[in-house]
């Protein structure tokens, strides 16, 4: 009895196996060794197109567009609330190269929300910030800080509009004191009023106006410039 002939069929090469195993197009859920899972589209073995990623350790989830393995395009990032066992949106908007980039809304808490422009995970450009205490800032941002032109409405009724630097009032600006019925207009430095004018503004509607109204200032006949320096500290 003759022995069987050895097979002449070669096993697939490692390169061919790698190519055959690469993910491309729409796939069912794919699990990674660390327990994370992704459901969606692929290209050349990378998340690419539309898909949903869930991270096992944190329970957070991203649902949206991908480009070569990173969040890119429009998408929503959510976190898992352990007690409620449900997801809460943290950021909804545009992404680039895995970072918040473009226009989007970020929820710091239920009452503290930023809506506006982002550059590489930082508030940058024009945006509106609703603070937890009720204050609202609308204006320019640079590297996650109010910087440039902007206005803020305080929960007590006061408001400021003008220039900002590194999160503080700096440069030309106006501040309205609702309780006193006065408005200060002039220069600011690191949040403090330096040189400007203080006038009555809505004095009749103010809760606690000063006893006497501010007298009008008249220029001399030579039209010399006048600078009224504030000797009382403005807050």
UniProtKB/TrEMBL annotation:
Pfam families: MORN. Keywords: Cytoplasmic vesicle, Repeat. The keyword Repeat applies. One of its GO terms (cellular component) is acrosomal vesicle. InterPro entries: MORN, MORN3. It is found in: Cytoplasmic vesicle, Secretory vesicle, Acrosome. Assembles a suppression complex (suppresome) by tethering SIRT1 and MDM2 to regulate composite modifications of p53/TP53. Confers both deacetylation-mediated functional inactivation, by SIRT1, and ubiquitination-dependent degradation, by MDM2, of p53/TP53, promoting a proliferative and cell survival behaviors. May play a role in the regulation of spermatogenesis. This is MORN repeat-containing protein 3.
